[in-house]
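Hey,
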Amino acid sequence: QVQLVESGGGLVQPGGSLRLSCVASGVAFSNYAMSWYRQAPGKEREWVATITSRGGLTNCADSVKGRFTISRDNWKNAVYLQMNSLKPEDTAVYYCHAMPGGHWGQGTQVIVSS
């Protein structure tokens, strides 16, 4: 059974940083491309960033480019999202996603507010 568990969310002031983590179990982690998505209140879930199975390629949404970095550690079955220069519009629940299979974590809340 695939399980993805996110952590690292919280309340942060504008301009601050957070590092989200997602640990996977029940999967051959190094075979999975991993992504982060987010969903703000009243909005649809949107893609944030993706990293390929071996970590060779990454991509992220224009809205976070230059501020967010996705990385992974296949020894730890973990994927990370380093978020810098946070803005109030980054406030959302952040979800970890694994492909193939379309597996989701339960999400971690990020609030950017002064």
